[in-house]
Amino acid sequence: MNNIHIIGMGLMGGSFALAIRKAFPNIRLTGFDKNQQHMEESLYLGHIDEASETPQAEADIILLATPVDTLPDLAKNLLEKIGPTTLIVDLGSTKASLCQSLSSHPKRAQFLAGHPIAGTENAGPRAAKEDLLNGKVFIICEMEKTDLQLKGKAYELFEGLNLKLRFMDPDDHDLHLAYVSHLSHISSFMLGKTVIDKMKDERHILDMAGSGFASTVRLAKSSPEMWTPILQENREHVLEALGSYIARLQEMEKSMRESDFEAVFQQIKAVAPIRELLNQD
Amino acid sequence: MNNIHIIGMGLMGGSFALAIRKAFPNIRLTGFDKNQQHMEESLYLGHIDEASETPQAEADIILLATPVDTLPDLAKNLLEKIGPTTLIVDLGSTKASLCQSLSSHPKRAQFLAGHPIAGTENAGPRAAKEDLLNGKVFIICEMEKTDLQLKGKAYELFEGLNLKLRFMDPDDHDLHLAYVSHLSHISSFMLGKTVIDKMKDERHILDMAGSGFASTVRLAKSSPEMWTPILQENREHVLEALGSYIARLQEMEKSMRESDFEAVFQQIKAVAPIRELLNQD
Q: Which residues of chain B are within 8 Å of residue A265 when distances are taken between CB atoms?
């Protein structure tokens, strides 16, 4: 592997660049971002060797790290242009509609649908971290549709970055992510909004918000530009998860309104298995 | 100050004990907990010098670190028994009903209503940390009702523990905490419940739950024994905050159901000031 091209030089693109630099110092890295400032920062921060003026089609691997709504067209355009030894890998947070839109493409075998389970609430090249991906899960969908030899090249890259590969059906992926990621973001966004709307003119909140609040609203700092398309792409599953969440909050509200605190206790107690599920203490 | 007695040797009582040991090594610390195992662990871990068989009334300061529903009776019983140089300080997360229940007590001046804005999702003596309180805010309610000299003793303690004092009206305190703490806990509990109910038989969640989910449900690991009484004591304010939160989630749900993603974008974007409010990046 001699060169990798990254399209989208934000948190994810930049973190891949830094990790690749460390694990594969001989690979030449080029990048493209339609945001000129991101381009300049990526060069300045040393994420890439060269900034391209347009998305490039010549590389061993092309990583797509742009918002999910841009991926289908971007992938299709690039598939038209690439030669037979190039693999395109996307890193988007939703997989079903992208896989669907490429399913009958004649060059489908030169595409790999991926999703690294890693991120922070910050955006842009300066948010990139060399160790963001280290030890994290990388989900691959429809792996059987990707050419064996090209896939081998990608696995070599992922292994070098210490990613743990998991294989899933795209619909399954989107359903699960709706619950364990997309719903968390909505929960956090709206919690932040509730507090801001109530207290926008108060400074008390600065003092009284403990670490618990900070943890719960951390995701509310995520970018609307990235998250609106994710919610849009995964609309059905997210609506299911959100409806289920609202129903449980309403159950809690009803118990409190009726002053049935034995029921409140039982509802909270039922969450205890979360400790083991998350495998943390 | 020669001796401090702590009632309730869990996360908060234990953390106060450890911090006092460090800042005031000459103060003798005794403790009581109705849970015999907590008592033994507190001694074993060196949180206290001596375990008392019942709550003690003889100390310079008595710290009450038990669940909020136990505080009014506990404080009243102790006020009957203490001599004129003893101060009782509570550390409970709700303040209005406690202050109300003690408002006409003849020894009200020997009581200080406090609330350290610090904690973790873990419970019990082993969860205690020496630095949990360091640099944290300590809210005092109705400070004018506490005897000047006794108060001076408490301030000396708090200063030694590097706590930042803030003064508030009890109702104000409970209203604000409903938004920035109690609502966060409900949000987190019910998010955990939604995911558990959907995926209880699946192992996928372990892999797919990224750091965002872990952060958002961290508080869901909190103890139902501690949190049910807090929600009960602060029922009205929490119901207001919870109703407001549900309304915002329903607004998001409506926009998504109508596929109005411009509205979704605007709702998420409106949360941006949370970055500055929390004074973090």
A: 224, 228
